[in-house]
Design goal:
Bound molecules: 2-acetamido-2-deoxy-beta-D-glucopyranose
Oligomer: single chain
Distance between the termini: 81 Å
Radius of gyration: 22 Å
CATH class: Mainly Alpha
Number of domains: 1
């Protein structure tokens, strides 16, 4: 076998994030679009965090989870968007190996925590609708704190383990990542000695942290829907269902992209499609969560009026 040209080179220290570099004519347009999306995402999610912390009426498990989800989304886009924006205005597109692994770690950990939080929120809705008499006993701010902490700790721990394995791989070139952030799939492709063990661990870990919460959410909603269908008055049905529509929408949006990723295997995805999907879950979805929750929810709108509008116009 002839050795590949880079086989004997020393390991590489920087990667090149190709981003949307192929779309040379629309760099400025993309920059403006992503800047607007990023600004709306930050403003919307930080607003929800402020409202949940500031308004005592929102100190219930459902809104505390929502506040945490918004905080998470703020972190999530902030790990990828700034580099995406810098790449579009022609800044240096290289990223050091360490920064790349760090970005990979935070993006994966936050995505994983998001799956856990969405499952905790589904559990909260399940209790509220299927077990209303015991709701306050089983779900209260203390339990909520425990679930939130468990999500963060297990998300970071599981990811640390997986990313540590990826960190051990050797990379000796080429170093071009065909995306705007350091994504797991692209990195695995670039490693110069294939490691089936690492690929296996990554696949199993990713499947577990996304699919187990997903099954949990599906089961919760099946139980919720069957409980709602048993309510005899249509007004009662509507009221019960309205408390979980926002969550259901957010879950569908988030898992919609994940499912497309699993259903269309990476080998069959064109680079453009892969980037579009990546854009969807790192940049677009985080923008929609606050919009979905604030448009659909009287309490959030009420809190907004109280906390923000009264401060601006105290009369
Ligand atoms: C996140 O959850 C913790 C624990 O329940 C809570 O104390 C905190 O206020 C929440 N954060 C936000 C922004 O809602």
């Amino acid at each position: 076998m002839t050795p590949t040209p880079w086989a004997n080179q020393t390991s590489i220290t920087t990667f090149l994030l190709l981003g949307f570099g192929d779309l040379t004519e629309v760099q400025m347009l993309l920059f403006v679009v992503f800047l607007v999306i990023y600004t709306i995402t930050l403003a919307g999610n930080l607003l929800i965090v402020v409202l949940v912390v500031a308004d005592r009426h929102l100190h219930t498990p459902m809104y505390v989870f929502l506040g945490n989800l918004s905080f998470l989304e703020t972190c999530y886009t902030s790990v990828s968007a700034p580099r995406l924006l810098a790449g579009l205005v022609g800044e240096d597109r290289t990223i050091s190996f360490q920064d790349c692994i760090t970005q990979l770690f935070f993006l994966s950990a936050l995505a994983c925590i998001e799956c856990f939080l969405l499952a905790a929120m589904a559990y909260d809705r399940y209790l509220a609708i299927c077990n209303p008499l015991n709701y306050n006993v089983v779900m209260n701010l203390r339990v909520c704190l425990q679930l939130v902490l468990a999500s963060w700790v297990s998300g970071f721990a599981a990811t640390a383990f997986v990313v540590a394995m990826v960190h051990q791989l050797s990379f000796c070139g080429p170093n071009e990542i065909n995306n705007f952030f350091c994504d797991m799939e692209e990195l695995l492709k670039l490693s110069c000695r294939k490691s089936p063990l690492v690929e296996m661990v990554v696949l199993v870990a990713c499947s577990l942290v996304t699919l187990v919460p997903f099954l949990f959410i599906v089961v919760s909603y099946v139980l919720i829907l069957s409980a709602i269908l048993r309510i005899s008055s249509s007004a009662g049905r509507h009221k019960a269902f309205s408390t979980c529509t926002s969550h259901l929408l957010v879950v569908s949006l988030y898992y919609g992209t994940i499912i497309i990723m699993y259903v269309v295997p990476s080998a069959e995805r064109s680079p453009a499609f892969h980037k579009a999907l990546s854009t969807m879950y790192t940049v677009v979805t985080p923008m929609f969560n606050p919009i979905i929750y604030s448009l659909r929810n009287k309490e959030v709108k009420g809190a907004f009026r109280k906390v923000v509008l009264q401060k601006l116009d105290p009369t």
